TrEMBL record:
Name listed for the protein in its UniProt record: glucan 1,4-alpha-glucosidase
EC number: 3.2.1.3
Iron keyword on record: no
Gene assigned in the entry: GLA1_2
Keyword Secreted: no
Amino acid sequence: MQLLYSLLLLFPLLAVLGSAVPTRHDYEDDDLDAWLARQTEFAVEGLLANISPEGTMRGVVVAATSRDHPNYWYHWTRDSALVMSVTNGLYVRSSAGTEASQLLQTRMLEFVTLARHLQFPPRNGAEGLGEPKFNVDGTTFTGPWGRPQNDGPALRALTIIQFAEEYLARGGDETLLRELLYPAHARWGIKPDLAFVASPTLGLGLGFDLWEEVKGHFFYTRTVQHAALVAGQRFAATMGDDDSWYWADLERARQHLEAALPNHWSRAHGHIIETLNWAGGVDNKASNLDAATLLAVLHTRRENGLFSPYSPEIQFTFLRLIDAFESLYPINGEKSDPVGDPLAPALGRYAEDVYDGYGKSAGNPWVLLTAAAAEYIYASITQWLKEGEITVAPSSARFINRVTGNHDDAPLCAFTIPQHDPTFRVLVSNATRFADSFLNRVRRHAPPDGRLSEQINRETGFMQGASDLTWSYASIVTANWAREEVKQQQATSSLFRQDNAPDNALPVAVQ
Ligand code: NOJ
Ligand code: NOJ
């Protein structure tokens, strides 16, 4: 398939054409489906273009094309791992033997090869694995920065394990795989990253958060670490690894995290608190309410983490996040777009944020967090459809009522809505509309040429901050996948056939 190649060749041209001042979406007369199809195609293109762009070492993923104001022309361990996990998702979805699947496999192998280069010889002693970012020629970034960042090695291990599993399932070369990412000496590949994660003084110790601002222990970091250890144990078994020290370390760390993570739930706050054991850095997050919570559960969804997206604790946090941002950003005052489609609030990192994408003034909503809200709700709907019922427990009633537009009060006891009950279909359909309204929000502020930056100006709605943020593109692709999954589930269920389609304008009576 020539498509990916031609897209790559086309990209410099598109970049030149697209360099005019972005405006808000003009609304040609298409709908969300049409826009999302176009935007996703562009996002895949933009994402791939930021992998090993000209002048960088093979395997490098630049965080954005922006080289000054702000300079994101670096390989971040976190961003690159998240982006390559999406690249692996494209690989998983590509048919074996096609040119596209070959190209994607090569990209993954180059990423793994770069990881080896960054891991060995060690940059900065064992602590070097917590280095947050590298220069694009593969040398260490030595300027002042919030370091270490202990989510990075966990995310990298998760991505590499996902790739290795797929590569083996496709009959890939096991000898090559072992040499690249599971050598017996364990100087590079998955094991050093997980040994770092499992170390009480390194990965489990204090570090900076994913926003690179606060030093402490974090819900996000701990959640991805936990998932990496679970995946690491599974993969160690696949590799027939009988290194009992390693197994014991992983197990001890996993148990440690399972004991520590519930401490991030605060009944008093009514939401997950992102930071515990604050030990320095920015101290402006009085609320301790952070959209990183959503990313944590989405980035670990495959590993069935301790807190799934469907945990009441996460549902409460989600509701608190939308409430906090709804009134904070002036653009959220617009509740429906020019064609009458509902607009959900755009979400930012946390209410007290002052990073405006260039420097410090007032924080803005972020593309990737608004897309994450959509993905989060699609994930919940997928779960309902999988279970074939919706259980409305006292702890989840507020969430269900909110996302389905139901205004009834919370029930006093749990009850279940089975899928053959017409209410089930109405709830699913309304929740899908609500999830869509977060993508409508992105659509409202995305420029017609599809180029996405990091942020959306809170007052004007224009793109702001690092241009062509690779992670923004990744977030569109994964939100679209989550939406597709919901659609596919509905397509295969007789309950959702056209002639059976529920009237989603009906007021819903949950009780
Ligand atoms: C401050 C921001 O808050 C942080 O997230 C960012 O990584 C650094 N500046 C560097 O751009
Ligand atoms: C700032 C973000 O806060 C951080 O999470 C990210 O790694 C860098 N920008 C690069 O995209």
